[in-house]
Design brief:
It is built from five helices and five strands, in the order βαβαβαβαβα. α4 packs parallel to α5. The radius of gyration is 14 Å and the shape is globular. It is α/β, with parallel strands linked by helices.
Length: 127
C-alpha cells in the first residue's frame, strides 16, 4: 500500500470525495480535519488515518505530512487561504513530498486579485 496520501479538508464535500476515490483505489489515506465529528468518524471507519489539526499551525502540518509521499490540498476560500496554501506547500517541500496537488474553490472574480500573491507564494515555497 505504501505511504499514506494526505488529504486536507477531508471532512468537507470535495475532500471526502477524494478520500473515497483513493480508498477505492486501494490507497492508504491520512485525513487532516479541524475536529473530530461524525464526518471524521465515518472516515476512520473506512480505514482512513484521521489527524486533527489546523492548516495554519506549522506543528500540526508537520505531523500531518510526515511520512506522506503525496498530498492533496483543499480548503474553503477564506482570508487565511493564501497563508494556509503557502505553509502547506513549504511543509510538503521540507518533507520531500513528491506530488502536492492544490485544488481551489476560488471564484473567478477573486482570481485576479489573488493570482500574483499565490504565484509569489509558490515561488517562495519552491513548488
Amino acid at each position: 500500500m505504501g505511504s499514506p496520501i494526505l488529504v486536507t479538508g477531508a471532512a468537507g464535500t470535495i475532500g471526502h470525495a477524494v478520500c473515497e476515490l483513493l480508498i477505492g483505489r486501494g490507497c492508504k489515506v491520512r485525513a487532516l480535519v479541524r475536529g473530530e465529528d461524525a464526518r471524521s468518524a465515518k472516515l476512520a471507519e473506512r480505514g482512513v488515518e484521521v489527524v486533527v489539526g489546523d492548516l495554519l499551525d506549522l506543528h500540526a502540518m508537520h505531523r500531518a505530512i510526515e511520512g506522506c509521499d503525496r498530498g492533496y490540498f483543499g480548503m474553503t476560500v477564506s482570508a487565511a487561504y493564501l497563508e494556509a496554501t503557502v505553509k502547506s506547500a513549504a511543509v510538503a517541500k521540507h518533507h520531500k513530498v513528491s506530488a502536492f496537488v492544490n485544488i481551489s474553490q476560488m471564484t473567478v472574480s477573486a482570481l485576479p486579485r489573488m493570482r500574483a500573491e499565490l504565484d509569489e507564494g509558490r515561488r517562495a515555497s519552491g513548488r
